[in-house]
Amino acid sequence: MDEKTTYKQRQTWGRKGAIVSNSSSKYTKQEKSIKKMLEKRNIEFEMHKQVELEPLSINIDFVILEKGKPKYFIEVTERKHDLQILCQAYVYRSRLIKEKYPNSKTAIFINKISFSIEKVLENEFDYLINSYENLGEFLRKVLNDVPTVHKT
Question: Do 15 and 50 contact (CB within 8 A), yes or no?
C-alpha cells in the first residue's frame, strides 16, 4: 500500500527547501541596496538569518545587531501578487518577533502597495518602507540608532 505524505511532512520539507534556497539565492535589488548601505557604514547585521520563534522557525532578510543582539528585523519583498495572503503572513511573523524580542523593532520594505494593505502593515510593523526614498530615510534612522562596528 502506498503511503501518502502528511501535511506536516510537506511543511517540514518546504521549510528545509526555503532555508537552502534563501542561503544560496541571489539578492534582490532592495537587498543589495540595504546590504551596501549597511556595509558602507560598518553596521553589524546578518542576512537571511534563520530565527527560531515559537511555533515557527523563520528566515528574516536582515537582522541588524547591537552588541550581538537583534535590534531591527527587516523583511524585504518585491512580490506583487497574493498580497493579501502575504500581508497576513508578515503580520503574523512580526507579532512572533515582537513576542520573543520585545525591545527590537520590525520593518518591512514592500514597494508600491495598496492603501488597505499599507494600513494593515503600518499597524503591525514599527516601520513601513514603501519606496526607495523611504528606504534611505529609514536607514539613516537606523544608522543613527545603532553603533558602528569598528574593524581592526
Answer: no
Task: Establish how many alpha carbons lie within 13 A of residue 22's alpha carbon, considering only the half-sphere containing its beta carbon.
Answer: 20
For the stretch 10-43, pLDDT in tens is 666 665 665 555 555 678 888 888 899 889 888 8
* Phi, psi of 147, rounded to the nearest 5 degrees: -65, 150
pTM of the model: 0.78
User: Strand order in 127-129's β-sheet?
Assistant: 45-52, 57-66, 69-77, 105-110, 127-129
Domain locations along the chain: 27-145
Question: Which CATH fold topology does 27-145 show?
Answer: Trna Endonuclease; Chain: A, domain 1 (3.40.1350)
Q: Give yes or no for a cis peptide into 102 (omega within 30° of 0).
A: no
Least confident of 26-30, 38-42, 65-69, 144-148: 144-148
Q: Per DSSP, which regions of 2-56 are E strands?
A: 45-52
Q: Please provide the size of the chain in residues.
A: 152
Q: How far apart are CA 14 and CA 6, in angstroms?
A: 12
- Enter the C-alpha cell of residue 39: 556595509
